[in-house]
Predict the 3D structure of the following.
Amino acid sequence: MMRALKSFGAFWYDFVIGDDWQVAALVVAALAVTALLVHLAGVNAWWLLPACAFAALAWSLRRATAGKP
Amino acid sequence: MNALPLVLTVFVACAVEAIEALTIVLAAGLTRQWRSTFQGMAAALIVLAAIVGVLGPTITLLPLTALRLVVGALLAIFGLQWLRKAILRAAGYKGLHDEASAYLREVAAAKAAPAASRRGISDWYAFTLAFKGVLLEGLEVVFIVITFGDNQRDLGAAAVGAAIAVVVVAATGIAVRAPLAKVPENAMKFAVGIMLTSFGTFWGAEGAGVKWPGHDAALLVLVPVVAVVSLGYAARLRRARRSGGAAGSRAQASVSDGVTG
């Protein structure tokens, strides 16, 4: 039972999060900051999530290729 | 929004998954036994139908803002994951996904596995291979159909896109009886990554309360921008890899010169 649960969890982790959990964390953080800016500061921060997505992708690619020929 | 971009996006995304499932099914059917393979496929399709039956209506009960926030975040993460892999493959840092070699690996494993019947299934290996292949790839199809369909409040159009993809890939597979190795899978994955990231970013930000300039028309800008940035990253990595390789060769040559000179 525990093994089945573990493999089920591992499947969904790999399916959604994939090779780099930090990309997922950055997207979630960017969404949280966007929501705060919109609802608390009244800033229509439509630009924040795309900018963070591009930055997260560049950062992840940089780490994936660092030191590789 | 027009249903055509939705149908096309779901079609391409689901075609990629269907090609991968086809490779596994062909390996099981051609090397082991078609009867058990079809039973495995049927069992997986029943499980998938049950998941759609439960998840589909449940998700539609969520308020649109919450749905867009959660689904947008998931799609953006999922899309960036696809884009990352596609860029690394395009730049040569990761091997291209090759259906022909994936097929040969599955065939070798299928040939080596002993034949055993279990629970009324004459070839348990063929059954489980087909079941797992269709279920895992099918789950991705279900995820894409439900998230795209529910967000656009047009589950029918998303289901049509997925159904056409599955039928086209299955018909082509039956016709050629071989894995679809000539399909430009990385280019398709690149395109899907761009669409998933764009739609995910759009819906996620909307769910967080953002009002996009131009409303839905913002997607017409967002998709090309994501495409240009991603292609730019791939080109930059390719250049860096080439110049790194050239520098490495020069360094090696100078070391050799030093040794021999």
The helical segments of chain A are 2-17, 21-41, 48-65.
